[in-house]
Amino acid sequence: MHPNPRKAWYRILYVQVLLAVALGIVIGVLWPDTGKALKPLGDGFIKLVKMTIAPIIFCTVVHGIAAMHDVRKLGRIGGKTLLYFEVVSTLALVIGLIVVNVLKPGEGFNVDPRTLDPGAAQGFETQARSLTWVNFLLNIIPGSFFDALARGELLQVLLIAILTGFSISFLGEQGRPVLRVFEHAAKVFFGVMGIIVQAAPLGALGAMGFTIGSYGLAALKPLLELMLGFYLTAGFFVVVVLGLIARLAGFSIFRFLLYIREELFLVLGTSSSETALPGMLMKMKRLGCAESTVGLVIPTGYSFNLDGTNIYMTMAAVFLAQATNTPLGLGQQITLLLVAMISSKGASGVTGAGFVTLAATLAVVPAIPVQSLALLVGIDRFMSECRALTNLVGNGVATVVISRWEGEITPAQLRKNLHPATDPSLVDLTR
């Protein structure tokens, strides 16, 4: 008997998610009211996933740090990670700024901001005013140890996990039994996630049906050029920029995308990169990256390495200036870039993070009317999918690169682990 018996194509999870997305689009187009009624399926699935993310991150980071005896190594990994994030994120901002100035998707719209509904962006503008560095840093500290776990704030969970990991590490041999508890607890929560993720097709069906049913395909036409430009720019960033980084690290970006395809389709269906976080943690460790590196880079990347969000911010801001006939000089665009570098780090865990950070950026460049955000409300759901996909790939590549810098895995091991022959589900599809 073959050690990996072929699984029927319709039983492969990412195929089911892809089919559910297509079905959701059809339902949303043909029966919009039915599509809107499917919203609870998408909302329920995302809530189920978020329910387990905080404990998974907590147990993973605690175990990774406590199991690492060399504290200097941990500091070295953290330093490399933040340096990598800042360089690549800034590059994403610059690319978005260049592309939107070349394509000029907003020219010719001639929108009068006085005719727009100021209430459409009011909620995002209010949230944006709270995105100061002081508030951001204070928000990292939870009200209590268990408050972070209860609320699911990733940066707060990361903080208490790092402190707990160091505490167990300082206990030496006495901390070994506690370390094993966290190791087994992580297995339990990953098992829970394995059960939940089976409902991903239903979640994708509900999310896509609601989106198309609410906004329709026709509503996309006026802003199609911006969407197309954003998707092409994000694709260029993944294939060329991240592809070059991957090549220098000794692996193929296309092999890597194939390796995380389940997580990509999950994000595509739900428009949330959080739904793929547990799967990414497991796959990066299976790829050969050290648990401590994975546990530090992936969660931190969800706040500090939002490549897709960065591209979106500069493109959307300049698009709104073009659409409202607001002239932006080179100095103003550089200011916009510098502000975006800061504000993009301050929206972790905020609903509609891309919109909130965009509002925060526009508030510092008053030439662009903030109420013009109303132009993007209708298509933000479609843009968020591309943002989430790009963020996910960027964090995955970052994890492998940091792991390579640390000598945890060789290019030969990477190529072997990324080879289709080692992946039973891919073999099933291509036979």
What features would you describe in this structure?
- The chain is mainly α and about 425 residues long.
- Mean pLDDT is about 75; it is low at about 345-350 and about 425-430.
- Helix 3 (about 40-65) runs parallel beside helix 8 (about 155-170).
- It has helices spanning about 15-30, 30-35, 40-65, 70-105, 120-130, 135-140, 145-150, 155-170, 175-195, 200-215, 225-250, 255-260, 260-270, 275-285, 290-305, 305-325, 330-345, 355-365, 375, 380-405, 410-420, 425-430.
- The protein has 22 helices and no strands.
- It has a single domain, classed as Orthogonal Bundle (Proton glutamate symport protein), CATH 1.10.3860.
- The longest helix is centred in the first third of the chain and has 33 residues, at about 70-105.
Entry keywords:
431 residues; Proton glutamate symport protein; 74% helix
Terminus-to-terminus distance: 17 Å
CATH architecture classification: Orthogonal Bundle
Our Rg estimate from Cα atoms comes to: 22 Å
State which percent range the strand residues make up. under 5%
Name of the CATH homologous superfamily: Sodium:dicarboxylate symporter
